[in-house]
Structures are given as structure tokens and as C-alpha cells.
DNA sequence: CACGCCTAGTCGTCCGTACGAGGAGCCGGT
DNA sequence: ACCGGCTCCTCGTACGGACGACTAGGCGTG
């Protein structure tokens, strides 16, 4: 049974922060393991001799930090931290596509780093180009696009949402419109139809997630996301794909290497 | 005077979310301009006919999104968004150092983009290399370093903290140890002592700021920061500088360009 | 044995109240 | 004119009570 300390009335921190600190400590020290259930709000209320709202306030703070997640009707549970993925800027090098037996790059990388990887919530559909996408693909507003949405998971926890936009004139009718795009992924298919990829640009930002993203990525209240918008160019410097990704910030480190010129 | 809608009791969203949505809308539409004060909690309580805790809950949500900031004893204010700086990966190209009349790159860029820029809280001192820095500079732990800390401001608002670490054997005794490193900045000085810069690596991440960073960057409760750790290499592939920066996420977009190989 | 119902436990939301602490402005004393 | 205190308004924190919604597990019925 978990042993927690008591409030210190001489401490100048308000009780709810002290309670949050005690729980945080228990989590950091492993007294509360990932996946484990915290004492119920009622139990904490009695233990500390405070009102339920005070306990809730403390738990709200931990939820905000992404340390715990509440499940309605079940309890509050310690969240497992996803492993950190380091994304080097050569991750789309052709060599990585070659030897991977047709497995998606994400799965290969997971295997090496020792975590299980999954892709789900795959949606493929046609849509008209919005302003941002049209501009990056250098297409007229409203051009026909093939859109691939998917969610990536590591150790069963969602860590990234990705949406790819490709001009329908390039991707239409290819395996890119199939749930399984085949060996080497969609970039291999793009190259097969005559667009050899030569360079990428990425725009990186960070912000708080929208309520929708928060839900899809199963995020706490104040866990930020990294946004990466990648544009792929072929040998003729034609933009062939825009990939908009929203990543759980705590699960990623991006690495770039560039010359001083 | 601000006109807000009323609650819709048939709406299945809870009242506090509806109130948050109404306020968010007012901010998005500009009915509540940046810097402007929201109606007080008491006023909102009366307007919507709910308890104060319900209004507070709504405002807490907006604070979580970084849209507003509460100031104890004054009120709740719409946060002003600092101008967005786009940092391209060629921003350290030598050409940018050449024509700038000795002005720091940051100031030149600000002039072009139409905002005022300042640098303050400059601190220069010697220190021993910590683990992370020593590893990146490929030096023994505890090696002597020249450290330059500074804070960048745009339109008077702090947007970035930067700390540069250079081996004392390279930077010691040069203008790098002076408050004003001279035309072209510290990279020009590094090249003058025989280390021509050839490439950089950057590691990008995002997280919530520490209380200290929150204070220095004058951030609200839940505004994330971008962390960029840049390492500069010379022609002999010797690491000559590590620059650790913490940037207000909403003020930055990082741009990278890399080949597919 | 399978299924649905019921109940206890849990979190989500909301009410009303109370006091403390920080900020700003009025206002009188000096 | 200056300064200090007072008061009012603001947000921060806390109390206790109430009901709703969701989950899980026991229990009875078919």
C-alpha cells in the first residue's frame, strides 16, 4: 500500500501544490509505477484532511504536466512515458528504404530502438487543396489531392499524427491510394512514377495541442506538441508531397545537419 | 463594451466549455484585442448566471491554451502574440555576416521584418564543461569554457534565451570575451583565430518552460518553449561552439532544407 | 451458462460561500 | 506637493454539498 506524507501547514506553498508535489515525488521514485492507479479522490481527501476540490486541484496540476491521466469511472492512472525518438535529417535517405524488406521506416526504427510500433487510424481520401498546402505544392487553390492520414504509436501510446498531401495527378491511381502503399512506403511509389526525390524542406514549430489533437494523442492538459511540415521536391524541383505532422513533444528530438556555406 | 452570447442549455457541452468557447471566439474575432482585459470573474458570473468556479474553470481552459494570462489583483488579459521569426537553416551563411556593417544578425533581421530588437541580460564568464556540453564539444568533462549568456527581445518582449559555450583555448583572450564581440559576431571572431566554420548541427525539441525560464521569458502558465542546441564545426570537424537556446514557441518557425541523398 | 440489471465506486461538473493576497486609486495628513 | 493609509476590485485558494455519468463486478433471471 502506498505511503504518502502529510501536509506541512508551515510550508508556504498552498496545500494543493504540496499534495501535487507529494504525488509527483511518489511517481518519480517509482512508488507509483506507470499504469498504476492513484488513490481515489475520496481516499486522498481523507488522508490529507482536505476538501475534495483541493485534491482535484492537485491532480489537475499533475494531469497538466502529463504525469497522470484520469479515466472517468475508473480512476487516475500514472502515465507511461513514450520512448524518445531521435529523427535525423537523413532519415529519408534512399538507403533506409532499400534494406527494409518493405517495412515502413517507422517500424524498422522502432525495432532497432527496442519499442513496439503501430500505425492506426489510417484514412485515405481525396480533397481540394487548402491555402497552406496549395502554396507549398505550388498548385492552384482547390486542386485535387490524395490525402493520407494516420496515427503512429510507440509501445501502444500515440506519439504522432501525420497527414500527407500529394497532387492527384501524381498519386492518383497508384498504391499511394491503397491502405498499404507497399515496400519503401509512399516515397518509393512517388519515385516509381518518375519523380526522383532530391530534397526536403521542413518547417518546425511548437504549440499547445487543439482539443482534438489532445484527444487523438491522449495528451494531458499542458503537454506541448511539435509541428513539422515537410515538403518533398523531385529532381525538377517540383513539390510532390506535403506532410503535416503533429508530434508529442516529449517523445521527440529532431536532428538537423547543415553546411555553413 | 464587449457583447457576449449566452449559454445554450440544450448544448451538450458543459457550461464552462461553452463560456470558454464564447471567450475564445471573442478573442479570435478581435472583439477582445491583445492586451485587453477580459470582464472580471464577477462580471462573467453575473452575465452567464453561473457560479464563480464555473467561470474560473472556463478561464483556466483559456490560460491552458496560452490565449490569456491572469494577473493577480489586476485582471485577466488577452496575450499579445510576438511577431513570428522564421529561422532558415542558411541563417549563419557567411554572406549574412558580410554586409551587415557589424550589426548582429538578430538586429539586421529585425530591421527587415519590421520589429524592434534588443539584446539584454548579457553575462560573460568562465565555467567548467558540464556533461552535455563536454560531449558535444568532444572535450573532457570539466574543461575550461567561455560562456556567453544573453536574452533576445522583439518589440520589447523577450523571445529567446541563448547560452554559447566555447572552449577557452579557442575563445580565451579574444573579443568573444568582450560584451561587444565586434562586426560579424562571435562566429567572425572564431574564424579569425583559424577555425573556418563548415557545418552546424541542431537538435530541436519542445517542452514546458522551467519556472526560471517562465520568469525570464515573461511567459504565461502554459506556453511551451522550443529548445535548439546548435553545435558549430570547423574545417577539421572540430566542434568550436555549442549554443543552447530556449525560444518562446509562438514566436518562432524553424526552417530546414536537406537533400534526399 | 449467458445475459441483463443493479449497485457501489469513481471521476466530472456545478452550486454557494468564505477568506487571503495583490494592485490601483482616492483622499486626507503632513 | 508628497506620502501614507484606506478601501475596493481583482484573482487565488479552500470549504462542503449535490447530482450526473461512466465502469466494473456481483447477482438474479432466463
| Class from secondary-structure proportions of chain A | alpha+beta
Number of separate structural domains of chain A: 2
Overall mean pLDDT score of chain A?
A: 88
* The CATH topology of the largest domain in chain A: Chorismate lyase
Organism (chains A, B): Tamaricihabitans halophyticus
Keywords (chains A, B): DNA-binding, Transcription, Transcription regulation
Domain HTH gntR-type (chains A, B): 13-81
InterPro entries (chains A, B): Bact_HTH_transcr_reg (IPR050679), Chorismate_lyase_/UTRA_dom_sf (IPR028978), Tscrpt_reg_HTH_GntR (IPR000524), UTRA (IPR011663), WH-like_DNA-bd_sf (IPR036388), WH_DNA-bd_sf (IPR036390)
Kindly describe this structure:
With 261 residues, chain A is an alpha+beta fold. The first copy, chain A, folds into 2 domains: 15-78, Orthogonal Bundle (Arc Repressor Mutant, subunit A), CATH 1.10.10.10; 85-255, Chorismate lyase-like (Chorismate lyase), CATH 3.40.1410. Helices cover 28% and strands 33% of the residues of chain A. In chain A, the strands form 3 sheets. Chain A has a 6-stranded antiparallel sheet. The longest helix of chain A is centred in the first third of the chain and has 14 residues, at 15-28. The model of chain A has no long low-confidence stretch (mean pLDDT 88). Chain A binds a DNA duplex (30 and 30 nucleotides) through helix 3.
